[in-house]
Amino acid sequence: QVQLAESGGGLVQAGGSLRLSCAASGRTFSTYTMGWFRQAPGREREFVAGISWSGGNTYYEDSVKDRFTISRDNAKNTVYLQMNSLKPEDTAVYYCARSMTDVITTQSYQYANWGQGTQVTVSS
After folding, report:
1. Tens of pLDDT along 71-87?
2. For residues 101 and 111, what is the distance between their CA atoms, to the nearest angstrom?
3. H/E stretch holding 13
4. Which of 5, 45, 65, 80 is the most exposed place for a label (fewest CB within 10 A)?
């Protein structure tokens, strides 16, 4: 059973950057498709980005495309989310999770082993 722990959140001004990390325990991390989600106050959890087990395939939600980059280092059991050109509307708690399928899916119910989340706040 994999356990996930996010880190790297914080307070940043609009236009700034942050790099989130999601560290995984367990020897099977490299076999999992992984995803990043976020949840803002009063809103449902939404998909941000996903990456295949090999890192060869990625997929992004439209509003973060060309600003965010998802990557992984299977040797370090870690998946990353590089966030550039941050906007106030990116403010949310960011979560990583493993997909229960072999393909990148945007539906949160198809993910498991959620981390505790890391807060990202972007000031205007």
Report:
1. 999 999 999 999 999 99
2. 8
3. strand 10-13
4. 65
